[in-house]
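Render Leucine-rich repeat-containing protein 49 in 3D.
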Amino acid sequence: MPISSSAASLERKRIFRIRGSISTSSTEYEKPPSDKNFLTIEPALPTAEISRKLYKRSNSTLGSGPTKSHDSLCIPESVALQPYPDGTVHILRTPQEKEKNPDRISLDRRGLTILPILEDEANLRLLSLQHNLVNNLEGFKHQTFPFLVFLDIYDNQLEKIHCLDRLENLRVLLMGKNRIKRIEGLENLIKIEVLDLHGNQIVHVNGLSSLNQLKVLNLAGNQIRSIGASDLKGLVSLQEFNLRRNRLKKLLGFGETPSLQKLFLSNNELQS
């Protein structure tokens, strides 16, 4: 018997509901007749093979593990670490890298324990050694960087400030998160404007009298108990001084800092 148009419409809707729905317990479903009008979604994460290519071990045997490459998968590292039999580590850069960054080198997260020898880098202006294991700076005794203005040795294992005498044009020195106990070895850095020594083990503020161009001094997160009357002598250009998270009970000597605009003292033991 012929089906009325109304009945036919209801039947089509019922069939559509059955075919259009997919049971949550089913592991298979009918593939659409054509893929032309459907987008293909690639995996959000790289395959295991690609993931392995994204991580390369440093050429240095001093490395503590894989370091993530910032280069193309097909291009080798542009800055190579080459250990020598005498215990030194030499830095070798490709001509392409030198052309791209002629005056700056980043050696962050390379597992370095000593300062490397940077061959043919006399024009260097910026050197970054963040997140390594460097415990001394004796490598600066054997190298000359007359144009170096920015040195970042954040998060290493330095116990003292030394061997920086030849960096006479240095403007920024970042040595936070080390194991430094004393402010020293800065007498020749008369052009320095920013000094960051936060997160060390410094107890006394001294050794700064020759830094009359210093504008920013960060000593937060140390073990400083007091600022003496002559501790800030010579800091006539100091504009910003951070002493947060110390053990301060007494503050003197600020008559030596006529340019001071910002002073941070939270999380100390001051009572008046």
